[in-house]
Prior knowledge:
Blueprint: H1 2-15, E1 28-30, E2 41-43, E3 49-51, E4 54-58, E5 65-67, E6 75-83, E7 90-96, E8 112-117, H2 118-121, E9 123-128, E10 137-138, E11 150-157, E12 160-165, E13 168-174, E14 186-190, E15 195-205
Antiparallel strand pairs: 1-15, 2-5, 3-4, 4-15, 5-14, 6-11, 6-15, 7-8, 7-14, 8-9, 9-10, 11-12, 12-13
Amino acid sequence: xxxxxxxxxxxxxxxxxxxxxxxxxxxxxxxxxxxxxxxxxxxxxxxxxxxxxxxxxxxxxxxxxxxxxxxxxxxxxxxxxxxxxxxxxxxxxxxxxxxxxxxxxxxxxxxxxxxxxxxxxxxxxxxxxxxxxxxxxxxxxxxxxxxxxxxxxxxxxxxxxxxxxxxxxxxxxxxxxxxxxxxxxxxxxxxxxxxxxxxxxxxxxx
Length: 206
C-alpha cells in the first residue's frame, strides 16, 4: 500500500511543477535580449533558442517551451510573432500544467490552445486542451503572411477566453468549466513544423 501511495505521489509530481513563483501584480515580460533562455523557461525537447533577440523554433512537434511562472487566474498575454512558413501555424498554450509535451504524434494539451493560421493557414482556433476536438472554437478567417510580424493578444476574464491579432478579434470561447488552479496555471510557446519567431512577451493580471 505504501509503495502504491509513493508511485501516485511521484506521478502527480511529474505532472505539476513545484515551486514556480507567481506572476506578480506588476506583471511579467521577456524581450529575449540575451544569448540563452536561462532558468525562466523549460524546453521540453523542441530545440528552442534565442536568435538575434527573438525566440526561434522550427519543428518542435508539440514539445512546448514552458514559462516557469504561475499565471494569474485572469490575465492578458501579449507577444509579437512571425511565421516564415506559408502554412502559418502560430501556436501558444495558456493555463496549462507547465510540463506537458507530445510523447507520440497525438498530443492533448492541458491548456487552452490558441492557433493563428493552423491547418495549412486556413483556421484560427481556440481549443480547450484538444485542438482537434469538436468543442474548439473556429474564429474569423485571416491568413498568416510569411515573414510579417503580428501582435497577438489573449485575454481570460472569468470563463471567457478571447484572442486578437493586431487588435482584430479573431476568436472567443465561453467555457462553463474553466481550466484553473494547480495544473492549469502556466503559459507556453508551442509549434508543430513551422519556423516561428516570438518576442516581447508581456503578461498582465486582470
